[in-house]
Amino acid sequence: MLQFIAQNMAPIMFVGLIVFLLFGFPVAFSLGACGLFFALVGFELGVLPESLLQAMPLRIFGIMQNETLLAIPFFTLMGLVLERSGMAEDLLDTVGQLFGPVRGGLALAVIFVGALLAATTGVVAASVISMGLISLPIMLRYGYDRRVASGVIAASGTLAQIIPPSLVLIVLADQLGRSVGDMYKGAFVPGLVLTALYAVYVILLAIFRPHQVPALPLEARTFREPNGSSGLPSLLVLTSVCTALAIYMGMRYTDLASWWSGREITTAATDEKIVVCTAAAVLLAFVVAVVNKLARLGLLSCMAERVTFVLIPPLFLIFLVLGTIFLGIATPTEGGAMGALGALGMALARRRLSFSLLKQALNTTTKLSCFVVFILIGATIFGLTFQGVDGPRWVEHLLSSLPGGQLGFLIVVNILIFLLAFFLDFFELSFIVVPLLAPVADKLGIDLVWFGVLLAVNMQTSFMHPPFGFALFYLRSVAPEKEYTDKVTGRRVAPVTTMQIYWGAVPFVLIQILMVALIIGFPGIVSREVEQKVDLDKVQIEMPAELPGFDAAPLTPPGTGAAPGAEPLSSPDEEQKRIDELFNNNKK
């Protein structure tokens, strides 16, 4: 029995961790306790040396020195300040009025605002709670299906986990040993594609089931021009002009970048083009709106001006954070610090910054940061013991021998992550499972940045899984549990049940699975820089034809003929004399 345990310590240790978690102990303490327990068992069985735990203080100290993890409190603080500054309310109110007149318009507004909040906050809780408090009552008031309304809000909130600056991408970059900036660049386009898939689902509902996503009634459209018109034509013209500028800049981006930098640039990353061209288009819209307002030109409608001024702050913050990272001006940690400062400035400009707000934001940021660090310490203790019993080799043999090569490995890993996400959140998956999978993926020749983005999309489903999805819990905390009287219409509104929230999440979980399949089928969706690997077998070493101080004429042994332009040496004595002269000249 003892011999069996000694020979199979790695799988027994992994099963032991699952047992610890099933007992309901906190993940951080379960990881640490499991690692220490099996370390003691290994000492007794002679499988592990007692000096193994001497490396533990150095590893924990290394966690404290990890500058990559410093970005987590910065982005968390930025998101919490923005969530309390009223930016989400203004966005949802304005964009809801913009899209409201069409069927499914409120749902499209929630998706659009969810993507904007994801690109500025990076925190799921802030996005889901904000949109649940603001949008859900409006959607229920005007007849939206409860499952559709709750599913759209929960799914849009989880976009904060894939659209940079995402916290899960920071953790994955740390665990995979890759740059956070590369992870952000790789996840940018997949995040936009996933947002588009959500919007396509809502559009299909508006076509085939219009009763589930009705348009706003005429009396609910509060943004009207003095003459009663909607004011949309001028907004459409301004949008068209700005879009044309962005497209033109995208087509001539390398020429513009070469002119700006003063050196020739032949290629540019897709994410860099999107951010810079969008920033230029937004700047043009802002300048036109400001000039029109100050000079009272009357070129723009009230709707066009309001949409422009409401969208500028979050888009400016996106460029301040992501633009500086993608352009190489700032590191992700520095970008997070600038984002936190920008969020405080926006809250101050809105006159929402107070000591109470700052205290709440700092308190929550400290709790989340401590939560991450404690899980990482527990995972380090578990990982040290697991490596000591050759656990990574066991996992490598288990996964690398799967049929199908890379594709078989990716399918099995994604099914595993999907199932584990029913019970574990993304932090726990990142610290427990990813360190075991990364070496195998690297050995199979899989790009780890691409692999990290793929796992991030899959882990996003952990927020949407019934019954343990955190986004569903956040929405449940703000959704009405009892029948209530609507303040605007005066009608009685039925509550939103937990099962309606669960069923509403199912279509969006399927969309996320479709996104995983798209990334595997079309790897180019993830934009990444391919590393140039040097093949050592093809390296050639070339020596210069002429050495300093030596005559270019080659020395030709007697009897073999002379090289062109060289006098042959007739005897060994003359040859030795020539060599001595050459060396004496070099010494001088």
UniProtKB/TrEMBL annotation:
GO molecular-function terms, A-Z: transmembrane transporter activity
Any one GO cellular component localisation term in the record: plasma membrane
PANTHER family registered for this protein in UniProt: SIALIC ACID TRAP TRANSPORTER PERMEASE PROTEIN SIAT-RELATED, SLL1103 PROTEIN
Origin species: Ramlibacter tataouinensis (strain ATCC BAA-407 / DSM 14655 / LMG 21543 / TTB310)
Domain TRAP C4-dicarboxylate transport system permease DctM subunit positions: 14-524
Gene symbol of the encoding locus: fcbT3
Name assigned to this protein: Candidate large permease component
Free-text function comment from the UniProt entry: Part of the tripartite ATP-independent periplasmic (TRAP) transport system.
Coiled-coil regions listed: none
Keyword Cell membrane: yes
Region (Disordered): 548-588
Biased composition regions of type Low complexity, renumbered to the chain: 552-569
Membrane protein topology class: Multi-pass membrane protein
UniProt keyword terms in alphabetical order: Cell inner membrane, Cell membrane, Membrane, Transmembrane, Transmembrane helix, Transport
Ranges that cross the membrane: 12-40, 60-82, 94-117, 123-140, 152-173, 188-208, 229-253, 273-295, 307-329, 335-353, 365-386, 406-427, 448-475, 501-526
This protein's record includes keyword Transferase: no
